[in-house]
């Protein structure tokens, strides 16, 4: 698969001027584990990864995420754990709490805000958007051409400014790890155009943005908690869902879905958050931990790229039909109103700046 295949984007849409002039409010509802990081552990289970020499550290920081052990969240967290130990000569240790053992993404954000949790990594456009509304930028369909466009934006001034907006809301925005480009799966038929979505029940995160998105495509949006998604797909409660390829793989959705369409409709970054209390506790080691976040970003991007190649091969071998030839222009046109609604909560200046990073 050509992971950097260019998709049609709003940069070429004729209605762009209307979208950029939109203003107003668009409130996200709270989503349970809305970042689709992984299957939360059963109540009372523990999933803690402590470095072997944690007892020698001057500072131990707890990092929580909602992902399963083989999900991209945890892969990044474990690499970060090693980077921090190296960057600080063992003075700082990272204790990883995975599988939502400390709560879902919304709860983790609240704990970072009140200082009871040092760090978390969460999807940008779900629960975090309830606190930092500008993160709804990542819910705009087809605003990004490909991963290169995304990384150019995240690594530039706009990415820094959006982390600053996290800071304006009482947390420290450390950087961006990977969730990935999102694609649609289903059990009924190949999806090449919006017409193929008509009447399909598609699981969505419980958010007005995602419900509007699927309604615009003629599908029936059905909110389902992430920990119930596999069984809902298996039992036919919903026909399909949408997630990045590594999530489709790590959660075994391909076992109960016959078709994967590479729609690439949105890209979701994982935002790395730290509490202000933890920043103060780190003192001079804060810069070392920041460097570890950035090193993990580079590692994670390379890792996700390889993971996507591996996933495509693995699920094709399992008998799943992969549809690469998708009419992105038709999907773009069908979701034009959604882009306007989402942009109600995202300053048009942010959208403008994203488009400036698109290749002509």
UniProtKB/TrEMBL annotation:
UniProt keyword list: Receptor, Signal
GO function term, MF aspect, one: carbohydrate binding
PANTHER family: DICARBOXYLATE-BINDING PERIPLASMIC PROTEIN (PTHR33376:SF2), PTHR33376
Alphabetical list of CDD domains matching this protein: PBP2_TRAP_Siap_TeaA_like
Source organism superkingdom: Bacteria
Keyword Coiled coil: no
Protein name: Tripartite ATP-independent transporter DctP family solute receptor
GO biological process, alphabetically ordered: transmembrane transport
Keyword Kinase belongs to the record: no
Short name of any one Pfam family annotated for the protein: DctP
GO cellular component: outer membrane-bounded periplasmic space
Disordered: annotated span: 27-56
